[in-house]
Amino acid sequence: MHSSSKTFFSWLALIILLVLFINYYDTTVLNQFAIFTSEEDVPEYTGFVNSVLDLIYSYAK
Amino acid sequence: MQSEMVQQFIAACEWDSVRFFVFSSNVFDPFIYYSHITPLILSILVGAFVIWKNPHELINRILFSITALFSAWVFFDLIVWATDRPDFTIFFWSTVNLIEPLIYLACVYFIQVFITKKDTSFKNKLFLTIPILPILFLTPTDFSLIGYDLSNCDRDAIEGPLALYGYFVEVFYTLYIAVFSIEAFTKSQDKSDRHQILLATTGILLFLLTFVWGNIVGSFSDDWRLPQWGLFGMPVFIAFLSYLVVRYELMSIKVLGAQVLVFALVALIASELLFVRSTGNRILVTITLTLAVFFGFFLVRSVQKEVRQRQLIQKQEEELEVMNAQQVNLLHFISHEIKGYLTKSEAAFAAISEGDYGVISEQLKSMSTTALADVRKGVATVMDILDASNLKKGTVTFKKTAFDFRAAVQKIVEEQRVPAREKNLTIETQIAEGKYQMTGDEEKIREHVIRNLIDNAIRYTPKGSIRVELSCDGPSTELGVNKIHFSVKDSGVGITPEDMSHLFTEGGHGKDSIKINVHSTGYGLFIAKQIVEAFGGTIKAESEGAGKGSRFIVELPAL
Lengths: 61, 559
What we know:
Chain A has helices at 3-29, 48-60; one strand at 34-36. By secondary structure, chain A is mostly helical. The N and C termini of chain A lie far apart (47 Å). Chain B is of the alpha+beta class. Chain B has a five-stranded mixed sheet with strand order 4-6-7-9-8. Chain A binds chain B through residues 1-2, 4-5, 8, 12, 15-16, 19-20, 22-24, 26-28, 31, 33-39, 41-43, 45, 47, 49-50, 53-54, 57, 61, and chain B through 1-2, 5-6, 9, 58, 61, 86-88, 90-91, 94-95, 98, 102, 119-122, 125-126, 129, 136-137, 139-140, 142, 145-152, 158-161, 164-165, 220-221. Strand 1 of chain A pairs parallel with strand 1 of chain B.
């Protein structure tokens, strides 16, 4: 194992834990997320990639 | 805080509350538990086993990371299935979307280290991690999950573009593994390496492909039943790895096939408990599980015992081979040294007998002649041992010249008539007409085969006669090769079936032969067999038993 590997994976693990902590705090403590109670309000992502994939999926279906 | 209206909506949905994070009637299909908990248990056990066996090996650590990430993914996904809390759904769903590409990244790292058998460079790690960074930093944002859909009580989160990006990253990693492995496979010259690459890559690709396709289909169709099958990719991957570990002892783990099979059987039966609902079936599965554990334990123990014995025998065999080689060398050395001293004594006695040191008394002449004969017998004995040792070591060189086998037989028969007469034995010969020319080492065949067989017949025949027969095939034999048939038959002590089995082996004395011929080295027939076989011939003995005489038959290819 390279000596740099430990440093690399330690930093990666630290960032992941930090992200998870922020996400946990946002969602479960602050409840910072949108709740849609009617189907009309539910937004759809309409970016280019999604449109292409939707098209492929509709053909496949 | 959730608004009052949201709380009213949640209450209207009548979701079940959750026990131990994952158990609730919100998970409407028992198959979801089966598809999650079976791979989860297998994954945890394999990961723990691998890291327990050798925590310092890099490949073991990577495999442990894969199983740990996969177990976390499965557990969090099960929470998403079971929970009645929107905040938990959002948190664990986004966490699952973050862990998923990390599993793929760990798999890339695994296959690289597995194939190259060394750690990858820092640059390589950085290059492969870069595609994950957007997922990492955008997970706590709306790009990951837009929100929670409470409109139809489905407890669904609405995925943002980051989920799609994650699938692209996963496909990229899968293709990277395929290309990397194909390249390594085509470059490798070693058959075993190629086999290992093929199995490891097939296992890992089956796992990743079923995993990614299940999730992609689920994301687009909003039908999350199909992706449940994708989780069984992990047991498939574990099965491939187990085979590699058993066959090649990879990851510094010694595992028996029986252990893997018993473990898999017990795990599969145990996971049935999650699937069956009726009490009767649960009792039956529990009994089956208990019996599998009980018999599996004894089976593994018995196989382990057998393997240990086999390893011990193998080790002893290797040690014996070494000792045997040392013994041959020692024998060769001793014989060589003794031969030197005997040859000097032989020369000295010959010189005394022949009067090189002046006129000697009749008494001294008689003594020196007897001593010379004894020394010559000693030289012959030592030469036998030395020849046998050389033949065994493969250090004997044979001459290959054409000679007349019949002439060689006639010469030896004439010489052997003298000792035969001394024992009141007669030597009868029957030599058929034909061509007896053959290619071989005339001296060795004459002395070690012809003389040895006739000499043995005289030694082991107290009374009666010896018959020497010689014949050869006509020119049109089946294989187009003429054969010389030479046999020596006597009316002597015969050979017991017990002695017959080790007649031509090194030092292979007959049980009672030593009583008749105390000077027998037991190497004569061994040497004869080696020489006959060196020239493409065969030698065998026939006897009806003790006291019924014997017959030795030699077949050699003629020119």
